[in-house]
Amino acid sequence: MNPRQRRGVLLMAVAVLGAVAVFVMIAGYVTDIGRQVGPMTTSYRFTSDVAKNEPITEDAVEEVELPSKWLPEAAIQSFDTSRGLVATTDIPEGAMLQEGMAASPPELQPGQSEIAILIDAETGVAGKIQKGDLVDIYGTFKVRSTNSDGATQDVDQARVIVSNAQVLAIGALQRVDAPDQEAGDFQQNEVVPVTFALDRDDSLKVTYAESFATKVRLALVAPGTRSKQPGAADVLDGQKMLGTTKAAGNGP
After folding, report:
1. Phi/psi of residue 107, each to 5°?
2. Residue pLDDT, tens place only, 182-214
3. Is 239 exposed, middle or buried (0-12, 13-18, 19+ CB in 10 A)?
4. Cβ atoms within 10 Å, residue 172
5. pLDDT over 60 at 240, yes or no
6. Closest CA to 219 of 121, 124, 122
7. Any idea of the CA torsion for 32, 36, 38, 43, to the nearest 10 degrees?
8. Which residue has the higher pLDDT, 112 or 145?
9. Which positions fall inside the Flp pilus assembly protein RcpC/CpaB domain (predicted)?
10. Which of 41, 50, 150, 152 reaches 20 to 30 Å from 24, CA-CA?
11. Beta strands in 72-206 (DSSP E)
12. 61-64 long-range contacts, Cβ below 8 Å, gap at least 24?
């Protein structure tokens, strides 16, 4: 091997050693940075502004990978946008999703209040009505009526008290003493406290019905639909029933 070849081999060896040294330095630097940054984790960042009480949809947040040590302690790392949660405050674009930023939609709308009444467990609820359902509230009353001869009599009357009342909660079964008009004594009834979200006028109607109606019943409104508001046609009394029955019986 002549001197020129020996110099070439030496330069190649120096280049290889230099490359190894550079690789070791870079690997050490990356390892050091990784040690300082720590493990990565998933979080969520808002891609647009979300106003208070607006739903947090899939388009409003994006999933990002960030070092765990850089995330706020309250950062949310698992979020299901299908739950229908809403923003509890005005959230700017770029903010990280944290605990307390998302909550269930408010159950009460402006002008509404909670009101709870006792409903007969067997005829009024029957295990079919759940929280969040819309129901029509019916009441049956004893009303004093005057017939064509001027005589007064008590007539049974049924009417729609409130339509599309939202159920907020259904309580535990209770047993209460109720007057038995036929036996002149008291009997035990099984009732369930049901809480509704109603405005002031409907709250007064429901309170009156609970106090003076002989029975209060709930009728479940089909999901995705709403009942019409009660009117004069939604009142049925005993005289109308008897008149309809007699007319039907006298027909051909």
Report:
1. -75, -30
2. 544 556 678 888 999 999 999 999 999 988 888
3. middle
4. 6
5. no
6. 124
7. -130
8. 112
9. 108-220
10. 41
11. 86-87, 102-103, 112-120, 134-146, 152-170, 174-180, 185-199
12. 61/97
Rounded distance between C-alpha atoms, residue 199 and residue 231, angstroms = 18
Which residue, chain included where needed, has tokens 């509890």? 88
Type of residue found at 63: E
Give the residue from 156, 120, 150, 152 showing the smallest Cα distance to 137: 120
Q: What is the pLDDT of residue 205?
A: 92
pLDDT of residue 248: 37
* pLDDT per position as a tens digit, 104-142: 777 777 888 889 988 887 766 767 788 888 899 999 888
Give the pairing type, strands 215-220 and 134-146.
antiparallel
3-state secondary structure of 126: coil
What per-residue string of b and e applies to 59-87 under the rule 16 or more CB within 10 Å gives b? Answer: ebbeeeebeeeebeeebbeebeeeeebbb
Most confident of 77-91, 174-188, 207-221: 207-221
Helical segments of the chain, H only: 3-37, 200-212, 238-249
Contacting residues for 209 by C-beta, under 8 A, at least 6 apart: 117, 137, 139, 161, 216
132 touches 167 (CB < 8 A): yes
Contact 32, 4 (CB under 8 A): no
List Cα–Cα distances, 10 to 4, 13, 14, 158, in angstroms. 10, 5, 6, 108
Query: Is the CB of residue 68 less than 8 Å from the CB of residue 41?
Result: yes
- 8: helix, strand or coil: helix
